[in-house]
Amino acid sequence: MAAVPNDLLTVVPRGARPWLPGVLGLAVVAVLLGAFFYAESEWEVGVLLAIAAALGLAAPRVPLLASAETAWRARPRLFAWLALLAALGLIGLFREEHLALLMLATALFHIAACMGLNVQFGYCGVVNFAGAAFFGIGCYTAAMLAGHAALPTALIFVLGGACAALIGCVLLVPVLRTRGHYAALVTLAFGVLFRSFMEVNDTFGGPQGVKLPDMTLFGWALAMPPEWFGLDWSFYVNYALLGLALVAGLFVLLSRLERSWIGLALDVVRLDETAAATFGVQLTRWKIFAFVLGNFLMGVAGAMYAVMIAFVAPSSFTLGDSLILVSIVVLGGVGNQWGLLPAVVIVMLVPEKLQFIQEYRFLLYGLLVIAILLFKPDGLLPRRLRRYGTEEAA
Amino acid sequence: MRIRPAFRRLAGAVLCSLLLGQSAAFARETVKIAFIGPLTGGISAHGIGGRNSAELAVQLRNADPNAKYTYELEAMDDECKPNVGVQVATKAASDKSIVAAIPFYCSAVAIAAVDVFHKFRMPMVVWAAVLPEITYGNDYQEVNRVSSTLINQNKVGSKFLVEQGYKTWVSIHDTTDYGKSMHKYFAENLPANGGKLLAEFGVGSDQQDFTAELTRIKELNPDVIYFGGLTPLAVRVITQMDKLGIKAQFQGTSGIFGDAFIKSLGAEAEGVFTTYDMPPVEQLPGGKFFLDAYAKAGYKEGFEAYGPYAFAATSLLLDVIEQVGPDRKKVIAALRDTHGKDSIVGKIEFDDHGQNITPMTTMYVVQDGKWVAWGESDYASGKRKLKNL
């Protein structure tokens, strides 16, 4: 979370329960999300989308909704914990719904990957249009190591990230030397290159792809339905929990990073390179840091995703998939980790829920994205400017 | 006042039952099946053609007064991406109201998602994907396929040409999965049939110049050039063969079949031989019926290469459901027990892996600017001769 601005702090209701509207707001979001997973018929999905749109548009104008936002901003830690609890509650509620859990886990792994992009894009201003390629490197690393080496699963996840970071280093020189469109082109080219390389390379499964075996994480069989509390669970619960743990962990890490002097240095590099250099901030060092860290996170997310889907093929890592990752970041509000949540719902879950209109679903989804960017050009939840002096108060 | 609505309702019911022919139609239970294919993206034409054909089979069945159930087809889009395929397969398989599925055009998607069907114990019949491993890669009772694998056309084609008197071959194939698999099964089958493979050339699927390969081939002087790849590449190879004066007979695979090949080559196409996994649609047992019904249904899009298979797979599945009821376990057992079942693509015969082994591979030759089934061509009757014989 960005630091809490002064003017917002003063609006915090001084009543007995200032957190109440915040809790209510969170409950509404959780209920909406839960209902969205349950919704099957056309009109259910339509009504839910309409409610969500109405709430989003009305939020700044209705006092109660606005105070919910204020409460979230006033107690970011408390509400992060509550959000985690709400997510756990949803997972518990859906314990037998395979598809809902699969979608939830897919969304969580993509949020984690987008957090990596956010470090590059949102914090440091390094463009990367090859997100799917780094995600894919993580996937392929997991597939290769799981198939041919007897390594612990946790190590495979880390190595997935490490490989993505390492291979990403090939791009360091061009990324550092180019700016704007040119940097975008360099990463675009890398994304295309990655896919072609995987297609012609038989060692990595060729165009047909490779299968992953079932995995066990510290004795926890990921592909088996767990037997907790004597209830029936879908085996996708394991992956949803894994994804939630990853996202929660990254959230803590990145919030701290953002508030630290590292986050400050990254911000300066993004906002004004000349000024940054004048004040002795090493541009090269921080760009490399952001690029490598971002790729690492995407690789880790990819490795976990591959273990869940149990199959990787080059056709899952096209330019279109890279653009999906970028559009999640842009739609949510560049640099704001919370923004990824509504964005991932729109970009990844809505098209799935629109299966009933078949070949027209991408059209509708495209219109939705255009409409959002027309009315909210900074994304759904734009990142606030940091202000010093208020941090301690929060 | 109270009588009126009740009366109206009664009259409505009577009218409805008159219209539908029998009141039993009311009691029909609705049964859902899923169709999965690429409905968006580069090859969506094939997916939509398959979907229309499957839908047609369902409509025809629903119009049949003797059907025990009313069927509903839920079409899902896999975008030809394995991860999306796993997702929609999970969606179909975990939905208990869906009894069975007609999935997959893309082999990569099929390979990734067969596990899902196995895990959830959902019966399915693949309608188009051709890679052998989909049925033979695992021992899954749930997985069946009406379309042929690419093994058969290589077996049939090489055997036939050896019988015609050819002795030596050279293989050119593109290095995509399609071309490589084609070559693999060709090279496996040729020696068994008594032919000899002199050399193999893997070429890029967008390669323009083949002078190097063809010069070497001219030295080797084979009777036949085998080609595993798609139309554009084949056109370039044949044009350059003629320039270099190579006289070998050209043997293609399903990848070159289609009007585009003849249009691009003109007279040079004469006498090109290929195998393709379907007899001409008009010659299929129910081909004419299918063509008429499809035209009557008024779909905007064509049914494309695998539409008849989608129709046959759906009809087969509906027959089985009629027979044993909408119960996944029973459908799995009854589907695997399909032997000598009539369909519009010929008799369907599943082996112990659920693969349809009725040979549908048909040999074609270009005659006067048209693909003609071998048996009906002037080449078979002896009026014309293939090259090098």
UniProtKB/TrEMBL annotation, chain A:
Q: Which GO terms describe its molecular function?
A: branched-chain amino acid transmembrane transporter activity
User: Which subcellular locations apply to this protein?
Assistant: Cell inner membrane
Task: Respond yes or no to whether keyword Ligase is given for this record.
Answer: no
Q: Name one GO cellular component term.
A: plasma membrane
According to its UniProt record, what is one Pfam family this protein matches? BPD_transp_2
Q: How does it sit in the membrane?
A: Multi-pass membrane protein
**Key word Transmembrane present in the record?**
yes
Enumerate the transmembrane spans.
19-39, 45-66, 78-94, 100-119, 126-147, 153-173, 180-198, 233-254, 288-312, 324-350, 362-381
Keywords attached to this entry: Cell membrane, Membrane, Transmembrane, Transmembrane helix
Record PANTHER family: HIGH-AFFINITY BRANCHED-CHAIN AMINO ACID TRANSPORT PROTEIN BRAE, HIGH-AFFINITY BRANCHED-CHAIN AMINO ACID TRANSPORT SYSTEM PERMEASE
Q: Under what name is this protein listed?
A: Amino acid/amide ABC transporter membrane protein 2 (HAAT family)
Q: Which organism is it from?
A: Plasticicumulans acidivorans
TrEMBL record, chain B:
Q: Which domain of life is it from?
A: Bacteria
Q: Which SUPFAM superfamilies does UniProt cross-reference here?
A: Periplasmic binding protein-like I
Which CDD domains does its entry note? PBP1_ABC_LIVBP-like
N-terminal signal peptide: 1-27
One GO term of the biological process aspect: amino acid transport
The Leucine-binding protein domain, residue ranges: 30-369
User: What protein family is recorded?
Assistant: Belongs to the leucine-binding protein family.
Report the protein name in the record. Answer: Amino acid/amide ABC transporter substrate-binding protein (HAAT family)
**Native organism:** Plasticicumulans acidivorans
